[in-house]
What we know:
By secondary structure, the protein is α/β, with parallel strands linked by helices.
Amino acid sequence: xxxxxxxxxxxxxxxxxxxxxxxxxxxxxxxxxxxxxxxxxxxxxxxxxxxxxxxxxxxxxxxxxxxxxxxxxxxxxxxxxxxxxxxxxxxxxxxxxxxxxxxxxxxxxxxxxxxxxxxxxxxxxxxxxxxxxxxxxxxxxxxxxxxxxxxxxxxxxxxxxxxxxxxxxxxxxxxxxxxxxxxxxxxxxxxxxxxxxxxxxxxxxxxxxxxxxxxxxxxxxxxxxxxxxxxxxxxxxxx
Length: 239
């Protein structure tokens, strides 16, 4: 099926998203620092607090890290990723091994349309765009129709609208959180590749216009979030 045929095959609400993309303007930020799990999560929350522009953040991990969702069980994460440092996300979803993945976050202010979509709609809209990026890299991904509940080892447990490779293995997943500040979408792609090129292709398809940003992180605020939440044993072991 050609590009026009694929366009016509999408649901009507997704046609609108594709035609208008998702954002009018967006920042692309390649975070220059590899960060620990608690710091990585705190930076995402700090960005959400700013609430000025949608931001696509591409980042790296300092060391061997895994993350588990807000409602995940620590015992399952420890069993699934023995010997790996763990952090609990503010978003939902399952357990993710970040040692070899490509990790990104989308931070969306509450006044943007995608932040007001239902969870399944925004998840699908973002993943349909990521799907085209991975196809352009030469892969053959497709959308999962999985019915498994979110949880457990993320890449062993595809849910609806996750991305699958041509052999039926899960290729990309994500988790979201909505609140008064907007939408936080945290995503992971199992395969690496050219991080800069992938980030630029993703930004190009997400927004009509985008520009590379160089954020000056409020390290005091990030440190406070690590101390009060993401770095606390009580936060990690809450379930």
